[in-house]
Task: structure prediction
Amino acid sequence: MIIIGEKINGSIPRTGEAIAAKDEAFIHELARKQTAAGAHYLDCCASVTEGELETVEWLIELIQDESELPICIDSPNSQVCVDAMKFCKKPGMINSVSLEGDKIDVVFPVIADTEWDCIALLCDDKGIPRDAAGRIEVFKKTMLRAEEYGIAPNRLYIDPLVETLGTNDQSLLTFVETCRAVKELYPDVHLTSGLSNISFGLPVRKMINIGFLVLAMNAGMDSAIIDPTNRDLLGVLFATEALLGKDEYCMEYIGAYRENLFGPIKA
Ligand code: THG
Result:
């Protein structure tokens, strides 16, 4: 599983406060903790109404003080995404494009001849297609655009988008059907997702999130935007990899346990 650490995101109240207060130590600590917890990328989302690019630059520099990990630049503004690439010491990931507006035309030509990867959401100007068939149509169009620019399927992380279970009881089933169809059409593309939308408005959200993670991994999801310092989630993640036959002799599971990434908290 490719773990994208979600904690440096201004829409998390405590992180938002730290960004507003220019609290460098707090951002340093988020970068350090998520790196120690085994993340592979660190998501960076300013979530500010003004001066987004300057805030993203500040965040990226703080992240790079503490971590060698590649950065996942998370902004709804594609121009900010591509402008922030130059602040990064190594290629990372753009989060995200979709068929909405001119996002693909802004991002794909810039990343084409680089080693940057990109998350693509399965939505367009009409929103998120209700059923899997509609999302697959968006996926096919996205892949045609990627091919035009010579971006190989293994550089794309497809986010099928998940709706809230509380308002759509078919949400997980639609997500799974979309994942399976994506993998059948293009076995080399990655699948990713944030976990939080599924459980919005429900009590004890962590339970729903964990169930979602397991079922999504079973459908081929090989990446997730999560809190890597959530020890319960990490334990289930490593257990599920092993159960799905993707962890020879459970070496990864055992290794993560030995590194104290999950399990009872040791003094
Ligand atoms: N898809 C893509 N990008 C995304 C999302 C997505 N970026 C933003 C968001 N969704 C993913 N990021 C977050 C960040 C924080 C939280 C949820 C989603 C959050 N975190 C809790 C906190 O920090 O307090 C902790 C949760 C936990 O402990 O597990 O709520 O869907 N492409």
Remarks:
- The two ends are 28 Å apart (CA to CA).
